[in-house]
Structures are given as C-alpha cells and as structure tokens.
Amino acid sequence: MREAFGATFIGPEGYLNTAAYGLPPKATVDALERVHRGWAAGTVAGPDFDADIAAGRAAFATLAGVPVKSVAMGSSVAALLGPVASALPHGSRVLVPEGEFTSVSFPFAAHDGRGVTVTEVPLERLPELAADHDVVAVSTVQSADGAQVDLAALRAATEGSETLVILDATQQLGWLRLDLAWADVVVSSSYKWLLAPTGIAWASYAERMVERLVPHHANRYAGGAPWQTTYGLPLRLTDDARRFDISPSWFPVVGAATSLAWMATLDLDAVTAHNLDLAGRARAALDLPPLDSAIVSIPIEHAATRLQDAGLRASVRQGAARIAFHLYNDEEDLDRVVDALRA
C-alpha cells in the first residue's frame, strides 16, 4: 500500500499507466464493495444512488471550474459529444488536431453524409485556423504524448465569434488546473486522472449549446426528479443541462462520486507540482525534450518491453512508450523507469 495526499492506495508501485486508467483510492474500493454487497443482498434501490449522482456532478463542476447547472452526466465522452455533432447544421466545418483521440473526432466525422467536414491540422496551428471553422474540438492535454493546446490563444481567436469550442479535459482533470469555463462544451471521462471506474463521464454545456441540443437520450433522469417522471406523458425535462443526463450506471457512479468528491478537496496546484516534478526529472534523465506535462512519451527503441520487464505498467501510443506520473507515484517509480531505460 502507498499513502498519497491523505489517501491510501492498494497497489500503485510501478504503476505508470494513469493516462490509460487511474487507480482508485481505498475509500473508492470500499464504497464499491459496500454497494456490491448490497446488490447481492437485495437491499439497494434506485433512489439510493441519487446522492452519488449529485455529489459527482458537483465535484466535476468544481474540478472543471464550471457551473453545476451546466453539467450533464453520460457514459463516455463520445456519447456526450454525439448530441453536439447532431446539432450542427449541414455543411459545418470542424477543426481538430492531427492524431486527436477518436472519441473527440469520430462523433463529428460520422456526419459526413450531411456534408460535415472534419479537418486535421498540427496542434500548434489550431488557434490560427479556428476562426475559419464552425467548430474546434480538441483535448486540452493530448492523450498520446501529453502536449497541451494553447488555450489562451484559442480563446482569443474565437471569443465573440460563432465558432464553437469543444474541449475534452479527460487527460487534464485531476492533475492540472486550467480555465475552461469559457468553452461551449467541456467533456471528461472519470476513469483516468479522476481515479473512478469506467462508465461515467460528464459534460458542461454552455447556455448557447443547451438551446441548440436535442436531448436524444431523454429518460426519467432528464426530468430532474426520476422517481416522479417514471411513467407517462407529457415530456417533462429540467431547464438546465440535466435534461441531457442518461440513466446512470449505478455502481460506477458510486465510485465516481467517491473519487471525484475527494479529488475536489485537494490542493490541485500541489498535485500538479508533484506530477510535473517526477515527469520533468524523467525527461531530463532520459535526454528527452522538456514539456510541462505529467504524460511522458518515450521514443526509445524497445522502451515498452524494457519497462514491462522491469515490472512497470505503461502503454504504447503512436509507436512510443507512454508513462504518466500521478499523485500516487513517487521517486521509487521514477528510479525504476530510469534504471530500466538507461541500462
């Protein structure tokens, strides 16, 4: 076990794969075990999860810096971007960076039959070309290598215009504080740096988006009072972004509420400093270019195999080994990486 930022983690030693999925604090594991025991005993009921949904929504709003009323609950980033893509007029022009995570680009590319075009450009050119497009969709921190989009330049290029800005913060939230409230859409999964189970994601829709979107997945939770909107017409939806809620995955939402509520109490600047210190020292030791990111892409021959042989968990993305340092990693993990790759 390892203690980090006031929480206990069961098995993070050598785990450097948070960019693929994060490890839960023991409190989250305990909460999931309790609800699964209740399921087995037949003692849980749907309303028991309402408090977890509210807690997860509020924690996401805090972490993303957005109003709670703007937050919708979904199952994945792609599912939350689907209604956004469907709301675009025929012939809309969408701009994405080269090599973008496909949960961001595919929902728009799927509308090519309506004349929607998706153009890929180098990440650094996104702000320069934004004003020539109807939509810009980008991960604030790139999944493959940890590179960050210049959000200040993107905001300056689009502010006051009709261009919609869509930000996927999945590789950011939980380790990096960035100002995102100005964007039209902010989406994030919970299972990476937010240390929750898969199956729960969140979106913040700005007011001008709420006015455009159709709640394609309208269900009893979209009414805001799910136990009063279970049967019969007329359609009864909330006035805020909850109208886009899907029916939740009950057990994952317990884990999401526990992990996100805890993370929302942390000094995120301290988490950022911790992560960047380890990642920066790894880059320096491996003679890699400096980059202010907790994600480290390692284009060293056989790097993934050497890490695996040393008992370290990592990924391979775009032909390079990818490691990620989060709050439960320490100098021992750093030393093992350097030893494995400099041997």
TrEMBL record:
Every Aminotransferase class V domain range: 77-287
Pfam family for this entry, one: Aminotran_5
Keywords attached to this entry: Aminotransferase, Lyase, Transferase
InterPro entries found in the cross-reference section: Aminotrans_V_dom, PyrdxlP-dep_Trfase, PyrdxlP-dep_Trfase_major, PyrdxlP-dep_Trfase_small
Highest rank taxon of the organism: Bacteria
Regions annotated as coiled coil: none
GO MF terms held by the record: lyase activity; transaminase activity
PANTHER family in the record: CYSTEINE DESULFURASE, PYRIDOXAL PHOSPHATE (PLP)-DEPENDENT ASPARTATE AMINOTRANSFERASE SUPERFAMILY
Listed name of the protein: Aminotransferase class V-fold PLP-dependent enzyme
